[in-house]
Amino acid sequence: MILQTTHTANSYTRTAIGLHWLVAFGLIGAFALGIYMHELPLSPQKLKLYSWHKWAGVSLFLVILVRLAWRLGHPPPAAPAGMPDWQRKAAEATHLLLYLLMVAVPLSGWLMSSAKGFQTVWFGVLPLPDLLEKNEELGNALQSAHKFLNLTMAGLVIAHLGAALKHHVIDRDDVLARMLPFLRKP
Amino acid sequence: MIPALFRAALTGLLLAAPAAHAIEYSQFQAAKSSLSFVSKQMNVPVEGRFRNFRSTLAFDPARPAAARAELEIDLASIDAGSKEANDEVVGKAWFNVKEFPVAKFVATSIKPLGGNRYELAGKMSIKGRSRDLVTPVTVTTEGKSASIDGALVLKRADYGIGDGVWADFSAVANEIQIKFRIVASAAK
């Protein structure tokens, strides 16, 4: 990870950009795996996929904590001048919700796993403490919560993506290029 | 006539006297007994148990050589940790309970190891396969009841539990940790 401390007010640090894409692709991958695996009939393959999903979730949770810490120390660049106030507020609210969900989604998965009686053992080596006792009803409730939080996050990610494309294609500002420096006009 | 009968009764009582110290535990107490296990799935320990099992036994701690013990387990009464697992393990690849509803253990010898420890040996039969099994047990007596506790590792492949795709131990380990407690009280 490259710690770039000198950046102009109009750009993200390279670390912030790296963390953004790492978390983005990680979450999309874990989300797709979750959608795919949960309806499979029980098989050794299913047990493996569940474990990989949980290992990915724990790993992403740690990256997300680092990202949050970085974000608190490095304010993001300001919105482009002339952006309507409601859009600015909508963008801020979406970002805040996305950060909350980045924490809540893996956390709800961990809790759900504990309540269902399956401990999480990170990479098959490091057992995570079970924060909840085995409890079937609670396990089912947390499963619904995990699903709801994920679908909410997916919806917000689509909105986030749509807004970024709109900034790039319609408004022709540098909002998307700040996160994808190769798009930046020379 | 009467004194003769009395004498005979007295003799019988005297002969039985040494056994009066020893108690034979023979009444299986299902509610106080337990049979649980831990399987490892992707290195994650998952607890399970059998709800229905029964034992016919006659055990006098003072005369272990004369002891008899049998255990029958209704395999369909398994709780393997989740509904999904319960539906799976009764099937053909695992216990195949339609064809083999009961697992049976028959003790062949019980040797004292000193104190309240004994070595229990016998034959375990699951899914049509029998294997010799030897395990130490601890016997705790309390008043008119005795608790026989033990733990052992059973290799599922020895009995063909988890055939086909499940024969790969990387998802579900071969070794299953078993813990049992058989409680029996003395006959009245």
List the main descriptive attributes of the protein structure presented here:
heterodimer; A: about 190 residues; mainly alpha; Fumarate Reductase Cytochrome B subunit; two-stranded antiparallel sheet; 5 helices; about 70% helix; elongated; disordered N terminus; B: about 190 residues; mainly beta; Lipocalin; eleven-stranded antiparallel sheet; 2 helices
Describe the structure.
Chain A is mainly α and 186 residues long. Chain A has one domain: Fumarate Reductase Cytochrome B subunit (Up-down Bundle). Helix content of chain A is 68%, strand content 2%. Chain A is built from 5 helices and 2 strands; from the N terminus they run αααββαα. The longest helix of chain A is centred in the last third of the chain and has 36 residues, at 136-171. Mean pLDDT of chain A is 93; it is low at 1-7. Helix content of chain B is 14%, strand content 50%. In chain B, strands 1, 2, 3, 4, 5, 6, 7, 8, 9, 10 and 11 form an 11-stranded antiparallel sheet that branches. Chain B is built from 2 helices and 11 strands; from the N terminus they run αββββββαβββββ. Chain B starts with a helix and ends with a strand. Chain B has one domain (23-186): Lipocalin. Chain B is mainly beta and 188 residues long. At the A-B interface, helix 2 of A face strand 3 and helix 2 of B.
Task: Give the gist of this structure.
The complex is a heterodimer of chains A (186) and B (188). In chain A, 68% of the residues lie in helices and 2% in strands.
Q: Rounded to an integer, what's the Rg of chain A over CA atoms? A: 19 Å
Q: Percent of residues of chain B in beta strands? A: over 45%
Estimate percent helicity of chain A: 55-70%
Following the backbone from N to C, one meets helices and strands of chain A in this order, namely HHHEEHH
Q: In CATH terms, what is the architecture of chain B?
A: Beta Barrel
Highest CATH level, the class of chain B: Mainly Beta
Give the termini separation of chain B.
30 Å
Strand order of the largest sheet of chain A: 1-2
Q: How far apart are the termini of chain A?
A: 25 Å
- Principal-axis shape of chain B equals elongated
Number of domains of chain B: 1
Summarize the largest interface: chains and residue counts: A-B, 16 and 19 residues
Number of strands of chain B: 11
What fold name goes in the CATH topology slot of chain B? Lipocalin
| Helix-and-strand structural type of chain A | mainly alpha
CATH topology of chain A: Fumarate Reductase Cytochrome B subunit
The helix fraction of chain B, in percent, is 10-25%
Biggest sheet descriptor of chain B:
11 strands, antiparallel
**Which regions of chain B have little confidence, pLDDT < 50, spanning 5+ residues?**
13-20
